[in-house]
Amino acid sequence: METLENSELCFPHLFNASCRKPKRSQTEAVVIFILLSFVSLLTVFLNLLVIISISHFKQLQTPTNLLLLSLAASDFLVGFLMCFQIMLIDGCWLLSDRVCVTYQYFAYIITAASVGTMVLISVDRYVAICDPLLYSTKITMTRVQICIAVIWFWSFAFQTMNLGDNLIEPGRYNTCIGECIIAVNYIAGLADLILNFIVPVTVIVVLYTRVFVVAVSHARAMRSQIAAVTLVTVKRSEIKAARTLGVVIVVFLMFFLPFYFVTVGGEDTVINFSTAAFVIFMIFSNSCLNPIIYAFFYPWFRKSVRLIITLKLLQRDSCEANLL
Known about the structure:
324 residues, 3% strand
């Protein structure tokens, strides 16, 4: 009986100090392992394709694609962070408390940077579609690079303040050995909700609503045959952008809302992997979908993938290839 009870502990030799493993069948553990491993590998692979494409082919190095590169870089890192989630399938954290806090600290930073980059993408598309004549002067490579740097610095600084207590004393909120818990103060959680979710979502919705209105007006002009030929060309891209708008916003809200509901659910929200595994998985899965939503709809991406897979990018002057 004692042996059976010890087998349910994360660290049997520590007896009462050890956390207990959650009751989970072997079949369930295998399914979870396969699912997480697949999502992790797919996230790394898809975002790596985006990174290589934009970094290698000069024709793709535009302000818009630079934003996609930033988003792909953050999602690429998320794919690696999922390895830690895979380690927790049996419900036990086998590494140190400092590694636990560091893992979640970087997860917070990357998530905030990803959301910020999505806002920049919405601004870029708004200017391109609603004010195309001034796009080249308003949206430049230098300005985009500065905005990306600001987003990443803000994410780093804010999350350092948000998780300061956890960083100073790792494991202070653990109740037993084998647990990985961070605590977010209610005020800090509320600030995170407002600054890293409500404000970005509001900006995205407002800007894309304007894009949708412009696209609809152009579609009506095309049906009435009032628009000029040059306007028809712009109009088609706008309609395509409006068509993907619903997918972008719905997926973003669906995958991020559960997490923010959890973080502000009480006066002091404690996040552990046993109770928050689902919302963490939702956020990670969104990183797998981002390259599909933002990149797979572009013909140039399909062309670059063919060149990468066939290793033609290793040929001389392949970076000059015509992909548009």
